[in-house]
Amino acid sequence: ATPIFVEPDECYNLDVSKIERAITERTKAIMVVHLYGQPADMLPIMQIAKKYHLKVIEDCAQAHGAEYRGKKVGVFGDFGCFSFYPTKNLGGFGDGGALVTNNDVLMKEAKIYRNYGSERKYHNQMVGINSRLDEIQAGLLRVKLKYLDDLNRERQHIAESYLKGICNTNIILPKKKQDCSSVWHQFVIRSGRREKLVEYLDRLGVHSMIHYPIPPHLSEAYRYLNMGTGTLPITECYAEEVLSLPIYNGMTEEELSYVSDCINNFSI
């Protein structure tokens, strides 16, 4: 398949207003990422998908437990995809993931595909892969799942503290959408002097990360699309300015205040 990229909105998710102009007669699906734990605007996305008879795949890898209009993400599209990588809001000891769907046909096909393309051992019905979640990871995740809501509430408290405590006018804070409940997998700010800010925070002992420095359309993998610099200006601007601040379960009020003070004292 050939991906058609669409610019993000101010919350870093798919800009709904730009979807329809990207649809062609060859379009098969809309792939939606709930980036940084913030739900995408699923109602209009599903309306567009219905209008053009398209499948919808939700990437919920960073959004375990996030809600859109009172419903958990992952249940709107034909598939919801979750990652259980250790750094995720619901993480295992190692790699793993899950698909959720209400479509019995898709469920059966996915179960076959993840097991070498077979339902019975050595009887391959299609080309498949080995993508089974092992029992140890599943056991750990079942225990951690009970605490997911509490862990997410802790992240929400940290994010709210940042939003209230950071008042540097040179820093762009993340925006929250109405009718949405973000689980703040990352707390991402923006700065036109990001590299200086990274160096400044590093000197003060504050770890920060860039999620993500290279837009997909400018990566080696998609060079064949011939999309050079400037073709997706909003995406490229975000990639040059975004910076993730520390956010993790167990973060103390003192640590929160320290990071906020460091950001507030940063000058261009």
**Termini Cα gap:** 44 Å
Give me the secondary-structure category.
alpha+beta
Tell me the major beta sheet: 4 strands, mixed
Percent of residues in β-strands? 5-15%
Structurally, the number of domains stands at: 2
Helix content: 25-40%
How does this structure look, described?
- The protein has 268 residues and is of the alpha+beta class.
- It folds into two domains: 16-145, 3-Layer(aba) Sandwich (Aspartate Aminotransferase, domain 2); 149-264, Aspartate Aminotransferase, domain 1 (Alpha-Beta Complex).
- Helix content is 30%, strand content 14%.
- The protein has seven helices and eleven strands.
- The protein has helices spanning 42-52, 104-113, 135-145, 148-165, 194-203, 233-241, 253-264; strands at 29-33, 55-59, 67-68, 71-72, 79-83, 97-100, 118-120, 123-124, 180-181, 187-190, 242-245.
- The strands form four sheets. It has a four-stranded mixed beta sheet with strand order 1-2-5-6, sandwiched between helices. A three-stranded antiparallel beta sheet has the order 4-3-9, with no helix packed on it. A two-stranded antiparallel sheet has the order 7-8.
- Strand 7 and strand 8 (123-124) form a beta hairpin.
- Helix 4 runs parallel beside helix 7 (253-264).
- The longest helix is centred in the middle third of the chain and has 18 residues, at 148-165.
- It is globular and about 65 Å long.
- The model has no long low-confidence stretch (mean pLDDT 97).
